Amino acid sequence: MNKLWNGDVPLVYTFWLYYFVGVIVLSLLAVVIGPVFAIVNVIWIAFMVLPIWKSANKYNGNKLFALLAKISAVVSGIGVLGIFL
Hints:
This protein has helices at residues 2-5, 11-32, 36-58, 63-84. The protein is mostly helical. α2 packs antiparallel against α3 and α3 runs antiparallel to α4. The radius of gyration is 13 Å and the shape is globular. The protein starts with a helix and ends with a helix.
């Protein structure tokens, strides 16, 4: 978790595995098991904003991918703020 938080996990894993797959799994668990996982899902999305941003800053590949990941992180963060407000 420390490597993820510090942006030391490569962007492809941070975004697609930890964020995207994580959100899908938590959403499915919320539907199947109950609303507790919906709350965990929102918390996970909020948590992942900074790891995505930090990992994108360290990304050495196509800068468009880093920019799109940052945009996605900001939009997700705004979505979480909208849920709480």
